[in-house]
Design brief:
Helices cover about 30% and strands about 25% of the residues. By secondary structure, the protein is an alpha+beta fold. Strand 13 and strand 14 form a beta hairpin. The structure holds flavin-adenine dinucleotide. Flavin-adenine dinucleotide binds near residues 45 and 92.
């Protein structure tokens, strides 16, 4: 059974009554089917305009779950979103960016999902809606494994909320793949750095994807960088020990050891980009 509700309320009631797999942009949904037929019950939420688009609120910037990557690129957003915009530009090609949504990327929960590290570095929270109500949780808690999240089957990821505290921080996203474009990440890094009035690192967040089952914030590195001069050379403070929590794997795209080296290089460069001149 295929249904295409027009409102969030209708959609969550369809899900609670009859269940079904959610279909949004379909750019993960359809490739994942392979040769199999579509599931018996599909709830196509692509018509839910109320959870599409970006709004600026007093305490947060709210990204509707149905917001596409093209919309992220085009939106006027504070500087701390530069990393998310860079990631958006690197998700597939333009056609994929026009269809693929933020919520689809997060709910699909691939270790190589490019949207995750920039949103982790922004301390994003997700809002899940069901017929029973709404709940919020940090993105860092939401994704728990390879294609595993805490989303219950009857819940729709309606919004991603980014707190306003770092609006004017600088941010960077770097992705390494086997070629420059249209590629699944071997490693990717997002960094956000805010300098204080004395020119030192006030707040810093660094997240790495594709190097463990779930993307990770490097909290030991963040602690080491706090208070250091926010100027060229900062990236050199990152060391292999700071990445020890990662558990990269050997696969068709790269060996674990290559991933570890690449991640450290990208971490250093991303931090450097946040404090370099421009
Ligand atoms: C050619 C190609 C290239 C790609 N390149 C990249 C890339 O470079 N980087 C990258 O990260 N990804 C890439 N992708 C993957 C994909 O485009 C993104 O993950 C995209 O953001 C998925 O969004 P979607 O709306 O299409 O999700 P869908 O395919 O509609 O859904 C994905 C999953 O999330 C669930 N879901 C979707 N929306 C919601 C919601 N609001 N609430 C709850 N569950 C939901 C669905 O049930 C499904 O399980 C690529 C895909 C293709 C086909």
């Amino acid at each position: 059974m295929y249904s295409r509700p027009r409102t969030l309320d209708e959609a969550v009631h369809v899900l609670s009554r009859q269940g079904g797999q959610i279909l949004s942009g379909g750019t993960d949904f359809f490739p994942a089917l392979g040769d199999r037929p579509a599931p018996d019950r599909v709830v196509d939420i692509s018509g839910l305009t109320e959870i599409k688009g970006i709004s600026v609120e007093t305490n947060c910037i709210r990204l509707g779950g149905l917001t596409t990557w093209s919309e992220v690129v085009a939106a006027p957003l504070p500087r701390c979103f530069d990393a998310l915009k860079s990631a958006a530009r690197e998700i597939g090609g333009i056609q994929i960016q026009n269809r693929g949504t933020i919520a689809g990327n997060l709910c699909n929960a691939s270790p190589a999902a490019d949207g995750v590290p920039p949103l982790l570095a922004l301390d994003a929270e997700v809002e899940l809606v069901s017929a029973a109500g709404r709940r919020r949780m940090p993105l860092a808690d939401f994704i728990v494994g390879n294609r595993q999240t805490l989303r219950r089957p009857d819940e729709i990821l309606a919004s991603v909320m980014v707190p306003r505290g770092l609006d004017d921080a600088r941010s960077a996203f770097l992705k390494l793949g086997a070629r420059r474009y249209l590629v699944i990440s071997i490693a990717m890094v997002a960094a956000v750095v805010k300098a204080d009035n004395a020119g030192r690192v006030g707040q810093v967040r660094v997240a790495v994807g594709s190097c463990s089952v779930t993307a990770q914030r490097l909290t030991a590195l963040e602690r080491a960088l706090a208070g250091a001069p926010a100027r060229a050379g900062l990236g050199a403070l990152a060391s292999a020990e700071h990445l020890a929590q990662l558990s990269p794997i050997d696969d068709v795209r790269a060996t674990a050891i290559y991933r570890s080296h690449a991640a450290l290089t990208l971490v250093g460069r991303a931090i450097e980009t946040c404090v370099g001149s421009s």
